[in-house]
């Protein structure tokens, strides 16, 4: 909870700690994030192997961050949906589909980025 009496720096440091805890929780408990993390490691190994440029590294890191952060938001939306309405409801289905759609869009474009970087280096 936001404590207004706390000094700003302490308050911000606590927020970073909670956010770090959330990121660790995602990595420890979410199968999708675990898979994405493994893909990120493999693609990073490929980056070193093919000696991709600084610009390619930046775009690759951005693509990885985009997919994993949207997956985190998707997980949070699923948690809220399950908490507020654990039973079947057409609206909950739509909310979850929309959140999953956001991950799908980011993933498709991340794959395109990967193809643009690596296809010319492989063939
Ligand atoms: N309570 C519900 N009411 C209606 N439809 C639901 C409900 N729960 C899930 N669904 C449908 O099932 C799909 C999968 O939902 P679920 O909560 O299992 O997510 P998931 O895809 O398994 O999660 P993850 O992305 O973490 O693998 C949703 O996109 C939605 O279409």
UniProtKB/TrEMBL annotation:
<dbReference type="InterPro" id="IPR036945">
    <property type="entry name" value="DAGK_sf"/>
</dbReference>
<keyword id="KW-0547">Nucleotide-binding</keyword>
<keyword id="KW-0443">Lipid metabolism</keyword>
<keyword id="KW-0812">Transmembrane</keyword>
<keyword id="KW-1133">Transmembrane helix</keyword>
<dbReference type="InterPro" id="IPR033717">
    <property type="entry name" value="UDPK"/>
</dbReference>
<keyword id="KW-1003">Cell membrane</keyword>
<keyword id="KW-0418">Kinase</keyword>
<keyword id="KW-0472">Membrane</keyword>
<dbReference type="InterPro" id="IPR000829">
    <property type="entry name" value="DAGK"/>
</dbReference>
<keyword id="KW-0444">Lipid biosynthesis</keyword>
<keyword id="KW-0067">ATP-binding</keyword>
<keyword id="KW-0594">Phospholipid biosynthesis</keyword>
<feature type="transmembrane region" description="Helical">
    <location>
        <begin position="98"/>
        <end position="119"/>
    </location>
</feature>
<protein>
    <submittedName>
        <fullName>Diacylglycerol kinase family protein</fullName>
    </submittedName>
</protein>
<dbReference type="GO" id="GO:0016301">
    <property type="term" value="F:kinase activity"/>
</dbReference>
<keyword id="KW-1208">Phospholipid metabolism</keyword>
<feature type="transmembrane region" description="Helical">
    <location>
        <begin position="35"/>
        <end position="52"/>
    </location>
</feature>
<comment type="similarity">
    <text>Belongs to the bacterial diacylglycerol kinase family.</text>
</comment>
<keyword id="KW-0808">Transferase</keyword>
<dbReference type="Pfam" id="PF01219">
    <property type="entry name" value="DAGK_prokar"/>
</dbReference>
């Amino acid at each position: 909870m936001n404590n207004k009496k706390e000094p700003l720096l302490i308050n911000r440091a606590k927020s970073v700690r909670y956010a770090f805890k959330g990121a660790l929780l995602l990595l420890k408990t979410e199968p999708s994030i675990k898979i994405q993390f493994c893909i990120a490691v493999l693609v990073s190994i490929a980056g070193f192997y093919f000696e991709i440029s600084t610009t390619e590294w930046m775009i690759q890191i951005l693509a990885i961050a985009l997919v994993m952060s949207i997956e985190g938001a998707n997980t949070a939306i699923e948690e809220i949906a399950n908490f507020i309405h654990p039973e079947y409801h057409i609206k909950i289905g739509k909310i979850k589909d929309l959140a999953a759609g956001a991950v799908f869009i980011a993933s498709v474009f991340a794959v395109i980025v990967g193809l643009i970087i690596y296809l010319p280096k492989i063939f």
